[in-house]
Specification:
Strand order of the largest sheet: 2-1-5-12-13
Number of strands: 21
Shape: elongated
CATH architecture of the largest domain: 3-Layer(aba) Sandwich
Number of domains: 3
Largest sheet: 5 strands, mixed
Structural class: alpha+beta
Distance between the termini: 44 Å
Strand content: 5-15%
Length: 780
């Protein structure tokens, strides 16, 4: 599989196979220039001919003398000691027959060998043999075996190494130098004896070459379970595995592993490298910071079964059950590391005791984390908004046998406040298409940022809260997004109506087989999405409101260079749909620019991103998920932090702005460092109007308005009312004046909204605390 490098050239990044194959052409095996053998063919050819079929170039596919000799040898030994198959017969078996032992199979093998000799030249048959013979540890052919056993190309191996390869043809596992070095050395001695018997090498030269192998066997330090599969090229494991699964569905596993295919992916090597450099160290640091143990109650077995274990141990002669340290020491160590160590460190900074400081520092560095801390996982995925090409993807803290979940596509998590731009874009698009001066949603629409309470069907109350439980009174929508105000998000949905936004939300999110929940908590990102789905929705905003169809593979070629699968044709421009207007996409983009420059997303600027960026943070309840999703005209990227167990917190204050935004900024700054700055290609088609409005009310300014700014509007939603709010009590923290003074209960069923008053004498229902939190600016 190939990825694109900085020069615009395709470079290998992965290999797919179950058995390693490296085809070798016979002309690559140059003739020998030494005088060790009168035959000047390459040493690999001479070794295989001597051991397998010394008369290969003289028979017609079947060696009758060899059959007679093998019959006598096996009869005298009383067992099968020597085979009689020629190289041509072995090729017939390897390519067309099974390995069953029967007279019928041997007859077919002989007949096919005769036909092969009539059809193909000897050199072609020998080339096929050298490329098809299994040589152990998952290698097929001399090219793969040479690279696995000796870390060399087959053209460069020595006589002794060639003899090792020739010794593996019968029983590769038994005679493997890695599994059984002694057996291997004995079999190699047989190969050299064959070279001497066949007149290809003198005794002295054979002894010299055999002795030279001593260094190879002495320095051999590899696991017997080692295989060529672990040697395969795999620079970016998460990408490799994701594309492998997709290709198996489209072209089949047999063709993928054995077809000699060339796969051209959309991955850009620089982007992928920078993604791993940005995310993986951050996840490791956060694992230490969050300090969540995989198993805390280490005394559970002792408490429950400790007394009974001693009886069982006496009956069955089991060893004593005991810890290396006492319970008191374990309790103190856990309390110290989790609760007291940071406080001691802070106090020591005040007292300045060097000895105590050194002890604390030593404890920090000596504490092991892999054995007892749950790893914080994460996701990063980057997509080109105009083409849908996935240029980078990291699926977690490290691809291992116990950690192969590809989280950009498999981790369903609540997006929290990262969903607000999608909601606001849909609301502004609806207002542009259905203008109503009383209900228009624009960046300058004034909303009340104040507490809310909703009666749920089970009689409890839902009370969505802002992150800090602080409220700002009335606030413009642009500022509300910048500060990630939850109450405003709910009021936007309430004002427009969820049923009016469903079509746009479904189009942006593209969730086949799933639907968006029909309740107000949708406004706070209460339902689960994968990072890929959320990134794709943002890509639609970056594309001027048009859907994006992401792909990871461009096309696949066979070994003859013919394109057998072209994925670009499956996602052409005709498949893209205009979900929301370009004007709505422009407005939400300009609002997200403020989030980056002045709001919760300022962390993206930490690494010197030298181009305009637009995005939004997201943090879910109890700091379980931390997001930043955003884009430039060149690239759309999402970053997510969290534990695989969705109920575990990352820790107090671990917001999207603190964790995800800096990683996003580092990746974007370095991935796009060598790419030219561009503008959104759809920008020239946007039809918006710019108006000067009052910063306090969002209306057209009057003579009393002194704090003014310019705002963009979809023309039909531009304000027409003159501001007359100055000197009034407009900024009292309450709902709008046209709302009833008594508590209002909103219960929403499918496509209908019901508003009713709570009876004043009724007992207040049990209040349910907000399930979701925002992530407006806090002091880190």
């Amino acid at each position: 599989m190939y990825g694109l490098n900085d020069k615009g050239e395709y470079e290998p990044i992965a290999e797919y196979y179950k058995f390693s194959r490296i085809p070798v052409r016979l002309e690559q095996l140059k003739t020998e220039e030494t005088v060790l053998s009168p035959d000047n063919r390459h040493k690999v050819i001479q070794c295989f001919l001597s051991t397998e079929d010394n008369s290969f170039y003289s028979h017609n596919g079947i060696d009758l003398k060899g059959i007679a000799r093998a019959f006598v040898v096996n009869l005298m030994a009383g067992r099968v000691k020597e085979g009689a198959s020629t190289i041509t017969q072995q090729v017939a078996r390897l390519k067309f027959l099974s390995i069953e032992r029967s007279i019928a199979r041997k007859a077919r093998e002989a007949w096919l060998a005769f036909l092969l000799e009539l059809t193909y030249p000897k050199d072609k048959i020998l080339e096929v043999y050298l490329n098809e013979i299994p040589l152990g540890h998952g290698t097929i052919g001399v090219g793969a075996a040479s690279r696995f056993y000796f870390r060399k190309e087959v053209q460069d191996i020595s006589w002794g190494e060639a003899a090792i390869l020739a010794s593996l043809t019968t029983r590769p596992t038994q005679f493997s130098p890695i599994v059984n070095p002694v057996s291997s050395m004995n079999k190699v001695r047989v190969v050299f004896r064959k070279l001497v018997e066949n007149g290809r090498m003198s005794v002295a030269d054979a002894e010299k070459e055999y002795a030279a192998l001593e260094e190879y066997y002495t320095n051999l330090n590899r696991s017997p379970n080692d295989s060529a599969f672990s040697d395969r090229l795999n620079r970016f494991p998460y990408v490799t595995e994701y594309i492998r699964k997709n290709l198996i569905r489209s072209i089949g596993s047999g063709r993928l592993y054995n077809g000699g295919l060339k796969i051209y992916s959309t991955i850009q090597i620089r982007h992928q490298e920078e993604a791993e450099k940005a995310l993986l160290p951050a996840l490791q640091r956060q694992t230490l910071e969050s300090n969540q143990r995989a198993f805390r109650n280490i005394d559970a077995f002792d408490d429950l079964y400790g007394s009974g274990y001693s009886l069982i141990a006496d009956l069955y002669d089991l060893p004593d059950f005991k810890f290396h340290i006492s319970r008191t020491e374990r309790t103190f160590s856990s309390a110290y590391q989790e609760d007291l160590r940071d406080e001691f460190f802070a106090l020591n900074l005040l007292t300045g005791d060097d000895f105590l400081g050194d002890l604390i520092d030593k404890n920090y560095t000596s504490q092991t984390t892999k054995d007892h801390l749950l790893p914080v996982e994460g996701s990063l995925i980057a997509i080109r908004p105009e083409t849908g090409y996935i240029t980078a993807m990291v699926g977690g803290s490290g691809f291992r046998s116990d950690n192969q979940q590809i989280r950009p596509f498999q981790a369903f998590r609540q997006p929290g406040s990262a969903f607000k731009p999608i909601l606001y874009a849909a609301a502004m698009d609806y207002s542009g298409k259905n203008p109503d001066p009383e209900k228009n949603v624009t960046p300058a629409t004034l909303f009340a940022d104040s507490p809310l309470q909703y009666l749920m069907e089970d009689g409890d109350e839902w009370a969505p809260e802002n992150y800090s439980s602080e409220y700002s009174g009335f606030i413009l929508l642009r500022k509300a997004l910048e500060q990630s105000k939850n109450s405003v998000a709910v009021r936007v949905l309430e004002q427009v109506g969820l049923s009016n936004l469903m079509e746009s939300l479904r189009g942006l999110l593209q969730l086949p087989g799933r639907d968006i929940p029909y309740n107000f908590s949708v406004s706070l990102g209460s339902f689960e999405l994968t990072p890929y789905e959320l990134t794709r929705a943002y890509a639609a905003l970056a594309s001027g409101g048009k859907t994006v169809n992401p792909i990871s593979v461009l096309y696949v070629e066979d070994n003859a260079g013919n394109v057998i699968k072209d994925f670009r044709k499956e996602f052409d421009e005709d498949d893209r749909k205009q979900i929301i207007s370009k004007e709505a996409a422009f407005l939400i983009t300009s609002m997200m620019k403020d989030v980056v420059e002045e709001g919760t997303g300022r962390g993206v600027l930490s690494y010197g991103l030298g181009r305009k960026a637009y995005g939004k943070t997201g943090t879910t309840n109890n700091f379980r998920d931390a997001w930043f999703v955003g884009y430039t005209p060149e690239l759309v990227t999402s970053v997510w932090f969290g534990y695989d167990v969705g109920t575990i917190s990352l820790g107090r204050g671990m917001t999207g702005g603190k964790l995800a935004a800096p990683v996003w900024g580092r990746f974007m700054a370095r991935a796009l460092d060598r790419e030219p700055h561009i503008e959104f290609p759809w920008l020239s088609e946007v039809k918006v109007t710019k108006k000067t409005v009052c910063r306090m009310s969002g209306k057209l300014p009057s003579n009393q308005c002194h704090d003014l700014f310019e705002e963009y509007f979809i023309p039909q939603t531009a304000p027409k009312e003159i501001c007359n709010d100055h000197g009034s009590s407009w900024n009292v923290v309450e709902t709008k004046s046209n709302q009833p003074s008594t508590p209002v209960v909103h219960t929403e069923k499918k496509k209908q909204e019901k508003v009713e008053k709570l009876p004043t004498s009724a007992k207040p229902p049990k209040r349910k605390k907000s399930v979701f939190s925002g992530d407006e600016e806090i002091d880190y």
